[in-house]
Amino acid sequence: MEIHGLNGAGGTQPIYPRMAAYTVESGSSVGVNAPRDHVEISSLGQMLDGIHRLPDIRHERVEAVRRQIAEGVYETPEKLEIALDRLLDEMSGF
Asked: Which end of the chain has fewer beta carbons closer than 10 Å to its terminal beta carbon, N or C?
């Protein structure tokens, strides 16, 4: 046996045999009972998608609020009233 070149005696060969080509004749359609793909997104996946859609964290604002809380000046009667109104609106469905 003589080998000529880098590709061996028979040249390059596929590892797996070729599969027959699949064609659909024009005018034909897929049957009603043909299998269809189905995807379900888990509740964890939905939650992670929701988290991904949240706006970026404004770290400067978070630090400012933390400082105000530590200094005891963040909670004011006006802010508590607004928070209570929003909570009641949310609970009543508005």
From this structure: N
- pLDDT of amino acid 35: 82
* Domain residue ranges in the chain: 57-94
Exposure string for 21-48, b = 16+ CB within 10 A, e = fewer? eeeeeeeeeeeeeeeeeeeeeeeeeeee
Contact indicator for 34, 40 with CB cutoff of 8 Å: no
Distance (Å) of CA 46 to CA 4, 50, 54: 59, 6, 13
Strands (E) in 1-94, as ranges, are none
Q: Do 68 and 76 form a contact (C-beta atoms < 8 A)?
A: no
72-90 pLDDT tens trace = 999 899 999 999 999 999 9
Helix, strand or coil, per DSSP, at residue 76? coil
